[in-house]
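Work Package 3 (structural annotation) set out to generate three-dimensional models for the target panel prioritized at the project kickoff. During this period the team completed the workflow that converts sequence records into discrete structure tokens, so that structures can be stored uniformly alongside our sequence database. As a representative example, we reproduce one entry of 322 residues exactly as it appears in the project archive.
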Amino acid sequence: MSIADLVNHATDKDRFKTVENYIDFCTRYLEYVDTGLQARIVSKNESHYQFFQYKKDGSFNITRPVNTQLMFDAENFGQESKQFRMTLEQLRDGQKPSGDLRDNLIRTIYTLQQSIGAALDGLPAGESNKARKLNGDLFERLIRLLIVSLNIDCVSGTMQVPVKDSDGIELLKSSYQHDLLISKDEELKIIGSVKTSSKDRIDKVFMDKFLYNRLTDTALPHIAIFLNDVQRKKTKKENEYGVSGTFLPGHFKAYTIKLNPLDGVYYCDIRPNMVKDTLLSQHIKTIDHFFYSDLWELLGRQGQTLENITLKKEDESDDDTE
């Protein structure tokens, strides 16, 4: 399969309706990468990141940074994806998977999504915005499909939330669009945001929790799931590249301390400062914590009845997440 074939596949969201669809595409992409690249470019400042350069049929484009400590290759993905399926089955059946399988969960989700993102980097330069939007849509859908595979109700949609005065009289309805609306027993339990990066988006997640809970007089948990927070940067030398972070620790800390902390922030590719910094490490975790424990703990909390909320589920073909 050529990079052109892979790009055509990745630009058709109707091909990604199940977790197996993601695994199948990833298998094909990794097989292509194994033998079809023009070059692998090693990041100058963080050497475990690489950039794939395509051949002529991919316009010699250079991809986003890929963390080789997380990205599986074609040789081991087959076995690792089988283990991933088994982990999901155990979680669905109420079992606790072995702790040594956490790394597999993180790396498989990362590999599935980065295969799509890197393939979309094969689009012509003028279509970079299209690539970002598609990549964001498909990451949101992947997370939603993984949650649904655990027999948990999860949709994306727009909520019409009633705004009442001090006497309880409804004044108007306020609309909120959310990537994840997770429910159990006719109660809304968790509201979630899913983005490939926190760049230019982290402020909104905090404000959404603040406004929603003030309007509804609830303490409904709000979470955020991110793929990574690195981007490619050019060095002074031609054909040399490095990586730079897109996470804004100052913003995150200010909102956490002065507005409200989120109830969970999760990454596949977590940055070193998120682990080393005392405050950040209290609020940011790798994505395995969400699936292994936090999801279930949040589902066990008292939720918000849906009787006063109008929920319009988004059509999968009309996703607009970036």
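The longest strand covers residues 170-184.
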